[in-house]
Structures are given as structure tokens and as C-alpha cells.
Amino acid sequence: MAVIPGNAFGPGGEGFVRACYAASMKDIAEAVARLDNFLTNLRRKQGREE
Fold first, then answer.
1. Strand-pair category, 17-20 with 2-5
2. Is 1 within 8 Å of 29 (Cβ atoms)?
3. Tens of pLDDT along 16-46?
4. Whether the Cβ atoms of residue 19 and residue 3 lie closer than 8 Å to each other
5. Who has the most CB within 10 Å: 12, 23, 31, 36?
6. Handedness of CA 18, 2, 27, 30 (dihedral sign)
7. How far is the C-alpha of 19 from the C-alpha of 45, rounded, in Å?
């Protein structure tokens, strides 16, 4: 999975990210789980727990 800033696609993408994937559903599910884990840990470090 690749993630790039949304503004790479023009000003309407500001504040968003775009994800690109070309893999099996199993690999995509693993990538999404890892991304979720990363973002959860980042929020904790920033003191923004949900």
C-alpha cells in the first residue's frame, strides 16, 4: 500500500491522503491493520487518545 498527500492531485485534495494498492485482499487487510496500529500509536504519543 502506498499513501501520498491528497494535494498531489490538486488543491481539492488538501487535508486528505490517497491510498493505492494492488495486492490480494489478505495483504490489503494486513496493510490496513498496520496503518490503524500506526495511527493509534501516533495519537497516543500526541495525547489524543480516542
1. antiparallel
2. no
3. 988 887 889 999 899 889 989 999 999 999 9
4. yes
5. 31
6. negative
7. 24
